[in-house]
């Protein structure tokens, strides 16, 4: 098997409300809206995507991790767009973690100092 893309999926109850929130979080509109009213997706890296899809049964239970280049700057930037992160946690592996919660209660964890090997 050769994997060519990775897609993280966040289940939501209302795509219009959630797409607006994710657009503010990511700082840009969706890259694609393949199924209007049901699915919007953002290309977040060259081979990585974040999809937001309507799934009432799973809304609020998704977890997405995003490794960012500068966690402190990202938190400040998000605050300027009306999105607040929880208190930064320092893990014993040297990474820093900050948590966001979307309108449905899904958890988006921002990771600073991420590396491939610990």
UniProtKB/TrEMBL annotation:
InterPro entries: Glyas_Bleomycin-R_OHBP_Dase (IPR029068), Glyoxalase_6 (IPR041581), VOC_core (IPR037523). It comes from the Bacteria. Gene3D superfamilies: 2,3-Dihydroxybiphenyl 1,2-Dioxygenase, domain 1. Residues 2-113 form the VOC domain. SUPFAM superfamilies: Glyoxalase/Bleomycin resistance protein/Dihydroxybiphenyl dioxygenase. This is Glyoxalase. It comes from Subtercola lobariae. The lineage of its organism: Bacteria, Bacillati, Actinomycetota, Actinomycetes, Micrococcales.
């Amino acid at each position: 098997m050769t994997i060519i893309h990775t897609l993280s999926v966040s289940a939501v109850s209302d795509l219009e409300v959630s797409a607006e929130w994710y657009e503010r979080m990511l700082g840009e509109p969706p890259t694609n809206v393949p199924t209007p009213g049901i699915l919007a997706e953002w290309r977040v890296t060259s081979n990585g995507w974040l999809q937001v899809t309507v799934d009432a049964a799973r809304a609020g239970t998704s977890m997405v991790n995003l490794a960012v280049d500068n966690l402190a700057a990202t938190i400040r930037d998000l605050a300027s767009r009306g999105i607040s992160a929880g208190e930064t946690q320092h893990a014993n592996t040297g990474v820093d973690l900050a948590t966001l919660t979307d309108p449905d209660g899904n958890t988006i964890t921002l990771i600073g100092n991420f590396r491939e090997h610990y």
